Amino acid sequence: MPVYASPTDLPEGVEASEAELLLASALVDEAALTARYRVDDEGLPVDPSILARFRAATVAQVTYWHELGIDPVQGAAGVVSQRQASSKSIGSASVAYESGEARTQARVDALRALGPAAAAALGALTRGPVIVRG
Question: Which of 46, 50, 65, 98 would suit a FRET pair with 34, their CA atoms being 20 to 30 Å apart?
C-alpha cells in the first residue's frame, strides 16, 4: 500500500503518525479507484502532477482529522462525543445540552470519507467511469 505523504509534508502544527498517513492514503486510493494512471514498483503514480494531487489530498485529509480532533487509528473509538449547549438562561442560571449524537455521527463518518479539501485536491480523478471487462 503506497503512502502518498510524509510527516514533513504536513503544515506546521499538524502531526501525524505513519499509521494516520497510511489511513489517509488508503482513502485517497479508494476515492481514485476508477482513475487511470501509471504507477512505479512501489505503487506511486509516475506522473508528477498526479502524485502531487495524491500528496495534497493525503495532507488535506490528515489536516481535516486533526482539525476535527479525530484519531483515525482508533477508529470510531477515537471519536469523542461532544455535547453542545442548545439553550442558556441567565436568570436562575440554567444551561441545556443536546445529546451530541448527530455531531458524533458526523465525526465517525469523517473517518470513512474524504474531507472537502482532500476531495477537491483530487478533482476529476475521482469522477472516472467504472469499466468492467472480461
Answer: 65
